[in-house]
Design brief:
By secondary structure, this protein is an all-alpha fold. It starts with a helix and ends with a helix. It has helices at 2-10, 21-49, 54-83, 87-111. It contains four helices and no strands. Helix 1 (2-10) packs antiparallel against helix 4 and helix 2 packs antiparallel against helix 3 (54-83). Helices cover 83% and strands 0% of the residues. The mean pLDDT is 87. The longest helix has 30 residues, at 54-83.
Length: 112
Amino acid sequence: MFSVATVLVAFASAVPWATDRPQLIGLLAVSNFGLGMWMAMYLTFTQEVSRDSVSTAMGLLGGTGSLAGAIVMWVIGVVTERTHSFDLPLYAIAGAITLSWFAGLALQRHRT
């Protein structure tokens, strides 16, 4: 699932080369579907952080994720305002998910 979700999110990096609106919407839809898959896995894996305190782990992970999201949205606003382009944020999203995929793969190999 990690691999499929990562490939789908990587479609975000093709958005800057979209030639028309239907293609742009299709690429974003595929990418968002992949992000949804990542979120579902994140919510499922919370129990792996602490089996005894799932709600505490969810609260801490959700809170830090929301804070990070707020900071990233502010940075994206600054970048897009200065460059008049969403290219860099879209590349960064694909890169961050790919980096997360490698981390998940390394953790999986370490645990088996």
